[in-house]
Amino acid sequence: SSSSSSSSSSSSSSRVFYFLQKVPVPSYLIALAVGELESRELSDRSRVWSEPSVVEAAAYEFADTAKFLETGEALAGPYAWGRYDLLLLPPSFPYGGMENPCLTFVTPTLLAGDRSLTNVVAHEIAHSWTGNLVTNASWEHFWLNEGWTVFLERKIVGRLQGEATLQFQAAQGAASLADEVARLGPGHNFTRLVPDLSAGEDPDDAFSRVPYEKGFYFLYHLQELVGGPAAFEPFMVAYLQAFAFKTVDSSQFRTFFEQHFSSNPAVASIDWDAWLYSPGMPPVTNSYDTSLANAAYDLAVKWHTADVMGIGADPPAGVGPADIEGWSSAQMVAFLEKLGQLRSLTPLAPSMARAMDKTYSLDAAKNCEIRCAWYKLAVDAGDESVYPGVVDMLSSQGR
Fold first, then answer.
1. What is the pLDDT of residues 176-191, one digit of tens each?
2. Torsion sign (Cα): 387, 389, 390, 391
């Protein structure tokens, strides 16, 4: 649905590029990238672009892009944009990704060498339907972009990696929502699903995990209320078709939802005002399968209780590399962050941090999410041996 061409100017020292986008695009999704770029094919409709020095690594990392895209289509309907290419940006790019149509911009921090962080691509692909095809009418209704996108992203990942992974991500998302509400304050305007920006507040100031995770939380609640995925997924497709190439606000979403499920008596129990306009945590508590999270949390408790006083002790009995065998990078991060929470008042002893590295080879991690979580824990522990790695990460990444 898009094409580009170039022609030499009369001076032959420059070229003029022409780009034709046949699909309507919201103005905030127009972006240009200029540089010395090479590409590698990923599939018949996808390629990855980057600087020559990292293009092979990028092609390896994003090899599963076609699977994400095909699964998105199976869930949400045909992909409207023709090509789906990726552009790996320089390290100064401050975000995980940006869903510019036909060419998603992504951070080089995703180059973990083992494809462990490419779920970010699932999120950006999901935006092809939720955000790019159906767009929030204003930034007060940003959850209709991001909450829906997290919902579709997790469905894509769930289809490819199993329901337990979807449930783990949902549980971790709920924990991050609780942290964000605590940080902002449970009565803060920006913890509302639809914040009030009528006094001229900058939407960038309202940006947080709330529209992502509270939005997902609401949609998951609605799904369970009406009968589960078998009932809700056809509604999702109908919603995307009804508002394709249009903007939508929360009132329109509510009306469409109530019309679609008009024969379902459970819909009468939804307190729309509380969900959309009340600050703080959601008015209803979702239930998730926490088995994958529990494994991470149990290991954190084991390390915590081995040296509660933080004065140095032997590692927990029986720990070893097998503890984390088969774990996803998200489970590793959950383990490290949970241990950090447990040690918030009394950090680990430096010797205990060294024992953790010896057991799990944490210093050698290439995954940026694991490195970040590990470095925060080790720095709090006063483990100076991680300082060179911390300096390297802070000076080489802008995210």
1. 999 999 999 999 999 9
2. positive
Nearest Cα residue to 86 out of 36, 124, 54: 124
User: Tokens 């060179």 identify what position?
Assistant: 388
To the query of whether residue 124 is one of the catalytic residues in this protein, the response is: yes
Look up 73 and say whether it is catalytic: no
For 67, phi and psi rounded to 5 degrees?
A: -65, -45
Contact (Cβ atoms closer than 8 angstroms) between residue 374 and residue 383: no
How many Å separate Cα 151 from the centre of its chain? Answer: 10
Q: Which residue out of 79, 212, 360, 375 is catalytically annotated?
A: 212
∠ CA 271-209-165, rounded to 5°? 90
DSSP string over 113-163 = SSSTTTHHHHHHHHTTTBTTTEEESSGGGTHHHHHHHHHHHHHHHHHHH-H
Q: What is the pLDDT of residue 14?
A: 82
- Residue 6 corresponds to which tokens in the numbers above? 């170039």
Please tell me whether residue 175 adopts helix, strand or coil conformation. helix
List the catalytic residue out of 124, 146, 180, 213: 124
Name the residue with tokens 């300096």.
Answer: 391
Helix, coil or strand: residue 12: coil
Q: What is the pLDDT of residues 128-151, one digit of tens each?
A: 999 999 999 999 999 999 999 999
